[in-house]
Structure formats: C-alpha cells, structure tokens
Amino acid sequence: MTSVEALAWLYSTQQFGIKLGLDNTRALLALLGNPEKNLRFLHVAGTNGKGSVCAFLDSLCRAHALRTGLYTSPHLVEFGERIRVNGTMIPDEKVLDVLTLIRRETTEWPHPPTYFEIVTALGIRHFADEGCDIVILETGMGGRLDSTNAVTPLVSVITPVDFDHMKWLGDTLAAIATEKAGIIKPGVPVISGRQQTPAEEVLRVTALEKGAPIEFVNDPLEGYALGIPGSIQKLNAALALRTLTAAGISLTDAEIRAALKSAAWPGRFQVLADGTVLDGGHNPQAAECLVQHWIERFGDEKAVVVFGALSDKDYSQMLASIERISREFYFVPTRSQRAEAPVNFHVGVPSQIKESLSAGIAAARRSGDRVLITGSLFLVGEAMELLGVQP
C-alpha cells in the first residue's frame, strides 16, 4: 500500500459517519502502545476561536523552546495540516506506516473505527514518536464523547460556546455547553473564554462537580501586536496566555511578543496579495466576527461575496450578517457531501448562482470590487487550491 492508497482507505472510513464515544479511540491508542501516556496535553474545546487559540498556544510554546504537537481540524488543502510538529506536517511515510497497521489490525472489529478516531490516534502516536514536550489538541466536535477526550490534559480550555452542530450536541446553549464541558477532568484546571450566561452556568457547575478549578477570561489582551487579524483575537490571545500560566509554563515578555506577532491561522480573515479575503467562518457567531473584522479593516468598503455553505449550518443567519458589508453575492456549491444547494441561499442584495467556485471567483473578480470568499472552511480550502495559496 502506498501513502496515496493509505489516505484513500482513510477517507473511505468516512462512510462510518460521526460516532460519538471513546471506546474505539481507546482501543486504537492501546493498539499503538498507548502513546498518550508519554505526552502532556492542552485540550481545547468550544464553538468558535478554537483554531486561533490553538495557533497562539503553538506559537507561544515554540517561542519558549518547547517542541510542540498541534492537532487541528479540518485541513484546508493537505491532510498533513491536521498533525504538525513544530509547524512541520506529518510526513507521508509516517501516515503510511501507522495507517497500514491500523487497517490490518481493525478489519475484524465489530464496530469499525471512524475517520476522526483513526486520525486522532495517528496524531497522538506521531507526537509521541517525535518526542513532543507539549501537545495542543483541538476537539473535532463537542467534547464529552469526542475522540480527543481519551486523554487527560494539563489544562482544559473552552472557547466561547454558541450554536453549531445542533443535530449532535443539542439545540440550547446549556445542552451544547454540557457537551463541551465533558472535557473537564477531576482536578484539572479549566480556562474558559467569555461565555453567555447559560453556558457559563453549566461550566461552573461541571467544574465544581469535578473538583476542577475554573477561571473565565473576559478581558482582551492589550498592548501586543497579533499575527492573526481581528479584534476578537485579543480575547483568544488572552485565553492562550492564561492557559499556559495554568499549565505552569512561564514565558518572558519578549517571548510573548514574538510569538503573538508571528502566530498565523490560514483561512481565517486571510487577506491575499490581490486583496481577496478568505474566511472560513461557518456559523452565525463566526459571521458576526467576520463582519466586525471587515469593518475594522476596510471601513465602509463593500464586498463582492462568493458564498457556499453546508446544509447543517444556519446559513440564513450567516447571510443576514454578511449582507451588511456586501454589494452582491455569487452563490456556489461547496465540495462536501453535506453541501447545501446554492438555490436555497437568499439575500436582499443582487445575487447570482454559479455552477462552480472557480466560476464564482471569476465573476466576482470582474466586478472590480474586493472579493470575499466565505461560508465554509471546505469552500475556503478549495479556493486556496484554486488560487495556489499555501495553508
């Protein structure tokens, strides 16, 4: 089996869908020699800002000369983006070796492991093999039954909780927060971002029940240049710094300044050389942040928006927000089995449906106005491929 064939097999496991639970992940980790026992983790859950917080944590730890493992999802262009050691993507050879072993040993399992379970185990094995000093582990969805929850971290981090993945996590903030709070472990410190009242109450009660000290970071970090754009990132940076303090990692001010300024998170309000903006915001809260960032950066300038979204997202609310900064829309299909048909998107400004993302980008560019590509990380990843942008 080649590395290409190994990844093809891995992608084929997506047919098993999303299966919430930890049994398979624990079994996979045991198969791989329980590599998690030799690692220290910072575990990050939440609805929005998870990736940015993880990027800040990774940059800060590396500035402190720690060898970092960074586990995030989804990838934008290349699979290896999900699993990085000191910024370097997992090599194809390692992917091949571990997936070959997993495929061989799980063929008779009564409940085949899912894509995310396998990737989580692969990442943790790679981080252990690479001798990582610290691993920043982002949940895929939820927390309580997310496969990343098979580890015990130094600190549990919960970014702001909002409505997303309601099919699996519940349709109230309290229900969603209960799932996110599932990463809280007995006695393990919890650092939370700014929360709405129902979510904060759930987190406080859960932490009390688990005997886990909890702290809420409500004030933005001021006085530092940040490599990730948008004022909301001041809150994410503050959350990352408090997390490291809770983990017993002390940085000098020079290390903090260098790390925060160099931090990067592709596809999140990323402005290309030609002025095109890529933003993978995919829920109403993220759309509001996008609008805020746009106004901060471009003032009254209007966007020509290329938009695509998944069917399980609240795209109507997203469009209502983005419409405020838009001159016109081009609706396009998203490269995903969960894609929503563009005919179902509606706004109160001029709009057209295009048969592909490439056609939408071409039409938007002909307008002469600044182009914004948004609605889904899958769409932004496809745009990066089309435009030759490295993740």
Produce the secondary structure layout.
Elements: H1 3-12, H2 23-31, E1 41-45, H3 50-63, E2 68-71, E3 83-85, E4 88-89, H4 92-105, H5 115-129, E5 134-138, E6 155-158, H6 166-169, H7 173-180, E7 190-192, H8 197-210, E8 214-216, H9 233-246, H10 253-262, E9 270-271, E10 277-279, H11 284-298, E11 303-307, H12 315-322, E12 326-331, E13 351-353, H13 357-366, E14 370-374, H14 377-387
Parallel strand pairs: 1-5, 1-6, 2-5, 6-7, 7-8, 10-14, 11-12, 11-14, 12-13
Antiparallel strand pairs: 2-3, 3-4, 9-10
What is the count of DSSP helices, taking H or I runs of 4+ residues?
14
| Helix share bin | 25-40%
- What is the N-to-C succession of helices and strands? HHEHEEEHHEEHHEHEHHEEHEHEEHEH
> What spatial form do the alpha-carbon principal axes imply?
globular
The biggest beta sheet reads: 8 strands, mixed
> What low-confidence regions span 5 or more consecutive residues with pLDDT below 50?
none
Q: Kindly report the average pLDDT value.
A: 94
Taking strands numbered 1, 2, ... along the chain, how are they ordered across the largest sheet? 4-3-2-5-1-6-7-8
Question: What is the alpha-carbon Rg in Å?
Answer: 20 Å
Kindly report how far apart the N and C termini lie. Answer: 27 Å
Instruction: Indicate the proportion of strand residues.
Output: 5-15%
- Structural class computed from helices and strand pairing: alpha/beta
State the total count of DSSP E strands.
14
